[in-house]
Design brief:
- 39% of the residues lie in helices and 19% in strands.
- With 376 residues, it is α/β, with parallel strands linked by helices.
- It has 2 domains: 218 residues, Isopropylmalate Dehydrogenase (3-Layer(aba) Sandwich); 127 residues, Isopropylmalate Dehydrogenase (3-Layer(aba) Sandwich).
- Helix 10 runs antiparallel to helix 11.
- It is globular, with a radius of gyration of 21 Å.
- The two termini are 16 Å apart.
- The mean pLDDT is 96.
- Bound molecules: 3-isopropylmalic acid and manganese (II) ion.
């Protein structure tokens, strides 16, 4: 197969980050290198620091240099940030702030969090098999607005004691751009969109609902329903299979996706994509930051116990959304599913009594299958 010309090699920034981040990113890179061998692609990787690692090295959780490198790249892949080591750091310097800054600086307005339950994992879920079988939902979380970024956000002391304020603010264009993306995704899937808000209480939610209703006219193939966030918290546990695409504001999406992560039995298998409006390396693609949903898991860092599946599947999303390489993305997804189905599993998913695979053993097996399937 002809190798790609160096000049057009897609550029991928790697942010291994903290805790188990470096271990899981290493396995995702193996999967991408397996794609290079199997499909003749070539990728240019650049490894940079974010979060606690950047704080230790440079005194800040994210430097302008790293943002600039992302602007020159087609995609970025991140492990995780944060850990007890930095718990006493001042709020503006916390590792998590690096993540919030990169989302805002790069305009990563839409966070896609697909949650599906592979048949092999149905028995691992804490919920009944009949509830989780067939779950295949996609949460689209607004990522650069709402209460995470609204001003004022501060605390003070008055005569009556300590007080604090955060502001949940949205403009219509911020709601409409994530709404259009969600409608488009629903149209390409099963044609159902659930918009989640708290419009019985919040002004920002009433605006959210109004904009979703207005957009709905442009997507006659999509059936839109509005669900209050407290009710959605219940439906996600009682009847998750009835949903297709779910769109919601920043903090509701943060909370609901942690809840949804219990459906497949381990948060370790779930990937995510945070997309911008800027184009990526392929036709119809966008620059994105890809990361597993799980955190830095400092309690198991360095022990080879972390499940790299969520990061490997994030690399598959990167191939699809930023590089336009659907075939390669699907090859990684098939390899991960078959490895798990064959019982090669890290400790979080190993059936009772079965030996757990290490992080690297799982990653090696995925990479091997990506290559052998493509050659078979
Ligand atoms: C997430 C995380 C982040 C968030 C934190 C680490 C800032 O929980 O990506 O879901 O709240 O968005
Ligand atoms: Mn979260």
């Amino acid at each position: 197969m002809p190798l790609q010309d160096e000049g057009v090699m897609p550029k991928i920034v790697l942010f291994p980050g903290d805790g188990v981040g470096p271990e899981v990113v290493a396995e995702a890179v193996k999967a991408l290198q397996a794609v290079e061998r199997a499909f003749g692609d070539r990728f240019a990787f650049e490894t940079l620091a974010i979060g606690g690692e950047a704080l230790d090295r440079y005194g800040v959780p994210l430097r302008p240099e790293e943002i600039a490198a992302c602007r020159r790249a087609d995609a970025a892949l991140l492990g995780a940030v944060g850990g007890p080591k930095w718990d006493r750091v001042e709020p503006p310097l916390r590792p998590e702030r690096g993540l919030l800054q990169i989302r805002q600086a790069l305009g990563l307005f839409a966070n896609l969090r697909p949650v599906s339950v592979m048949p092999a994992l149905v028995p691992e879920s804490p919920l009944k098999p009949e509830i989780v079988a067939g779950v295949d939902l996609l949460v689209v979380r607004e990522l650069t607005g709402g209460i995470y970024f609204g001003k004022p956000s501060r605390r003070w002391t008055s005569a009556r004691g300590r007080a604090a304020v955060d502001t949940l603010r949205y403009r219509e264009d911020e709601i409409a751009r994530v709404g259009r993306l969600a409608f488009g995704l629903a149209r390409a899937r099963r044609g159902r969109l659930a918009s989640v808000d708290k419009s019985n209480v919040l002004q920002s939610s009433r605006l959210w609902r109004e904009i979703m209703d207005e957009l709905s006219a442009g997507y006659p193939e999509v059936e839109l329903e509005h669900v209050l966030v407290d009710a959605m918290a219940m439906h996600l546990i009682k009847s998750p299979a009835r949903f297709d695409v779910i769109v919601t504001e920043n903090m509701f999406g943060d909370i609901l996706t942690d809840e949804a992560s219990v459906l497949p039995g381990s948060i370790g298998v779930l990937p995510s994509a945070s997309l911008s409006a800027r184009g990526g390396a392929g036709e119809g693609t966008r620059f994105g930051l890809y990361e597993p949903i799980h955190g830095s898991a400092p309690d198991i860092a360095g022990e080879g116990k972390a499940n790299p599946a969520g990061t490997i599947l994030s690399a598959a999303m990167l191939l699809r959304w930023s590089l336009g390489k659907e075939e390669q993305a699907a090859a990684i997804e098939r390899a991960v599913a078959s490895v798990i189905a064959d019982g090669v599993r890290t400790a979080d998913l190993a059936p009772r009594g079965a030996a757990a695979a290490s992080t690297t053993a799982f990653g090696d097996e995925v990479a091997r299958r990506v290559v052998s399937e493509a050659n078979g």
